[in-house]
């Protein structure tokens, strides 16, 4: 287990920065692209400033809404030079094409079926929804109620039944990591 799992958040809720060793370990984790080709994370970062968006799993409707709105509101053409956004989920690479189509993702999508990256960066594993009375995230404004999202998830599962075993752990939370200069 990574030391990131025990790190506490600061007053803003952000996690403590990963150590150089944790970043080095993260850069060596192999991720899979849509065709199943695996490469170390450092090869896809490739020296660029990178925003890594980690999703829960491929059927998470909240994450789908987030990827959709990021792609819509921040197209690749609007990013500063030498900057990229990468989407990283967990589970098998097999649902990536369906996920890219469902979310209209403008960004490359990868998966870490081992969840090593999620562990190194200290993402929690929990199924708890946002509490009652909590303000809805901007990207969730048009996503419907929790019940609508549950039925939407069931519908997605039935429409993509062949990928059911490959979507990844449903309790794994995601988050964002920014690699500022593409190196450690």
Automatic annotation (TrEMBL):
Segments forming a coiled coil: none
Name of the protein described by the UniProt record: Alkyl hydroperoxide reductase subunit C/ Thiol specific antioxidant domain-containing protein
Chain ranges of the Alkyl hydroperoxide reductase subunit C/ Thiol specific antioxidant domain: 26-124
InterPro entries named among the record's database cross-references: AhpC/TSA, PXL2A/B/C, Thioredoxin-like_sf
Superkingdom of the organism of origin: Eukaryota
Organism: Didymella heteroderae
